[in-house]
Amino acid sequence: MNAVTEPLDNLQSLTSLTVLNASAALERGHAAIKAGQTAFDLRHVLTVDSVAVSVMLAWQRAAHDAGVKLELRNLPPALQSLTKLYGVCSLLFPSDVQLEQDCRAPRNPAQDEFAPVKAPDTVFAKKTAVAGDSAAHHHH
């Protein structure tokens, strides 16, 4: 693939993916897929909302229907966070694309609020080491 003279739209000029431009982005992606584009570069997408996930899923469906494999590249952290929040990483990245944080571990984002905080042991020990250590005596 010659990256220098790539005539197909890889959506690299897309800077936001929100409810305001979802329809346009969707159509643009569909047109690019129809034209034979198989990779979208989303490095410049800095403004996102939950619609971004729907748009990316729709692109993947369109690519699947067209019999091609669409690669979504260079997702900014905000976009990565959304894909994890909605638990759709494996749908959006069916290949072995590694995001900055692996998103394949199934989890319920709603439970994050109750998840134990992973603090460094030293900080944890100081905060919980109380005289008479009542923390060691759990009453059920």
UniProtKB/TrEMBL annotation:
Stretches assigned to the MlaB-like STAS domain: 17-88
> Superkingdom, according to UniProt?
Bacteria
Q: Which InterPro entries match?
A: MlaB-like_STAS, STAS_dom_sf
Protein's name according to its UniProt entry: STAS domain-containing protein
User: What's the source species for this entry?
Assistant: Duganella aquatilis
